[in-house]
Amino acid sequence: MSPELFQQKVLSWFDLNGRKDLPWQQYISPYRVWLSEVMLQQTQVTTVIPYFNQFIKKFPDVHTLANAPIDSILHLWSGLGYYARARNLHKTAIIINEKGGEFPSDLDSLILLPGIGRSTAGAISSIAFNKSQPILDGNVRRVLARFYAISGWTGSTKTSNELWEISSRYTPKLRVAEYTQAMMDLGATICVRSKPKCEECPISSTCLARLENKISGLPTPKPKKPLPVKNIIFLMLQNNQGQILLEQRPAVGIWGGLWSFPEYTSLTAIQSWALENNIPIQSINQLNKQRHTFSHYHLDYTPIIVKTEYPINILMETNQSAWYKVNQLHSLGLPSPIKKLLQNQYKEKNYGENS
């Protein structure tokens, strides 16, 4: 199928069936497109919608976002995962704001900004500025890999380069904003991972994966490796004034910048730490082990509730620890497992309504 016919079929399908009422499709601006594209990285539309709406309400423009404390941004992001995206949002907002608040429209300048890769830059350039730039997010990779029956994991350099060449060749000069949204919609609603709706697909007549009966095997899955398991203990230290000790994690790494419980390798290590710091322990209650899975390892964590008799001034090595009452936690960025532990322990259900 020629690029021209492909474009015609995809755009005709989009005109009749494409999604046009998503929050970021209203009042289109570079800021709104950028925010939605970052949120949509590795996250489904239905999950993103409430987060996007809350972000736009609190941070309606790049100036507001740039001047917001990172804690307030991480708080609204809490539960969305991949927290480096939120930190990069803040960094990029500061850069844009310092340059007058205007987003660059060219691809090279966009790619230089933190957290904006080639596909995200292409989406911003095409949707917000109507420039003819290809994209290759997960949905578009799936559509093109099936249409051309391209085997090989789409994240590999060879396969990715091949798909980028096709995406570039098929991206039109006109109606590029609609075409970009159409391709994302086609992958998200029709050419889905399992049970694709080929009978509703506008390009199924020449889709090689369908013609060669390879749909179920394409795109080629990423080679799987057994995930390692990391075991830790969360210290849920409480004092008799109803305060909980939390510490802010380093800005880089897992849960970067979020507030969590101090981590230990064993109950003995906690008891030794308490003894060394003259912390009187009133009671110890070990909860059941739980698991949280990241993309590259399983985290098995055991919460241990330790109650102490009176308030103590504890400064951790990083000087990033603080006592918080339960009603003070609403403004903090908390990882999902920490939020759930607090909710279960204190029967408080409002640690961020976007969870």
Key terms:
single chain; 355 residues; alpha+beta; Endonuclease III, domain 1; Nucleoside Triphosphate Pyrophosphohydrolase; 2 domains; 5-stranded mixed beta sheet; 3-stranded antiparallel beta sheet; 14 helices; 42% helix; elongated
- Compute the number of strand runs: 8
So how many helices?
14
Mean pLDDT, rounded to whole units? Answer: 92
SSE succession: HHHHHHHHHHHHEEEEHEEEEH
Which architecture name of the largest domain does CATH use?
Answer: Orthogonal Bundle
Structural class: alpha+beta
Radius of gyration: 24 Å
- Low-pLDDT parts are 351-355
Biggest sheet statistics:
5 strands, mixed
Oligomer state equals single chain
Please report the first level of CATH classification, the CATH class of the largest domain: Mainly Alpha
Q: Choose one word for the global shape.
A: elongated
Quote the CATH topology of the largest domain: Endonuclease III, domain 1
Strand content: 5-15%
Structure description:
There is one protein chain. With 355 residues, the protein is of the alpha+beta class. It folds into 2 domains: 3-136 and 153-186, Orthogonal Bundle (Endonuclease III, domain 1), CATH 1.10.340; 229-346, Nucleoside Triphosphate Pyrophosphohydrolase (Alpha-Beta Complex). Helix content is 42%, strand content 13%. The protein has helices spanning 3-17, 30-39, 45-58, 62-66, 70-77, 84-98, 107-111, 118-129, 138-147, 157-170, 176-190, 208-211, 267-276, 336-346, and strands at 229-238, 243-248, 259-260, 263-264, 281-286, 290-293, 298-308, 321-325. The strands form 2 sheets. Strands 1, 4, 5, 6 and 7 form a 5-stranded mixed β-sheet that branches. Helix 2 (30-39) runs antiparallel to helix 8 and helix 9 crosses helix 11 (176-190). The chain is elongated and about 75 Å long. The two termini are 44 Å apart. Residues 351-355 have low confidence and may be disordered.
